[in-house]
């Protein structure tokens, strides 16, 4: 490498462009996902957060609010209003756990289970333009990135 190349590399590192930031790439991809999901979710009358809450319940019904929050990376003070809204819409039921009154359990109603028939995910996977193996690799890489970042900010992480 020539001295001028090294100087250019140092200058680029000292003056990074927005497009060089991984965090911006992830952030802007998240915004693009929101735009792609919006027309589909509007048909259902759901927000993205409400939708992923229902998806988590399709995966495992009758969960505690705490376990659901862990899966969704949401605190209970964020999740509770979402659950109240979904309950008012007739998609979920919340009940105190008879074995532990401190716990609230969340279950899908028949209407909540029926939403699964809409099959939203396929058309959005197609919208990414990724082949199935690329899609799976990217999803795994992003999940690893998320987990590493969470671990790095935990006390003792």
UniProtKB/TrEMBL annotation:
The keyword Electron transport does not apply. It comes from the Bacteria. GO terms for molecular function: DNA binding; DNA-binding transcription factor activity. The keyword Nucleus does not apply. PROSITE patterns: HTH_MARR_2. It is found in: Cytoplasm. This is MarR family transcriptional regulator. It comes from Cupriavidus oxalaticus.
């Amino acid at each position: 490498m020539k001295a001028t190349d090294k100087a250019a590399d140092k200058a680029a590192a000292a003056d990074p462009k927005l497009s060089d930031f991984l965090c911006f790439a992830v952030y802007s991809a998240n915004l693009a996902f929101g735009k792609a999901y919006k027309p589909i979710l509007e048909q259902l009358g759901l927000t993205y957060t409400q939708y992923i809450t229902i998806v988590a319940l399709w995966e495992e019904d009758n969960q505690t609010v705490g376990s659901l929050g862990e899966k969704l990376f949401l605190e209970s003070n964020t999740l509770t209003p979402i659950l109240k809204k979904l309950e008012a819409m007739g998609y979920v039921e919340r009940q105190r756990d008879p074995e532990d009154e401190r716990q609230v359990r969340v279950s899908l109603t028949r209407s909540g289970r029926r939403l699964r028939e809409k099959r939203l995910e396929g058309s959005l996977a197609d919208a990414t333009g990724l082949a199935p193996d690329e899609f799976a690799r990217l999803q795994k890489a992003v999940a690893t990135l998320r987990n590493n970042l969470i671990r790095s900010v935990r006390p003792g992480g």
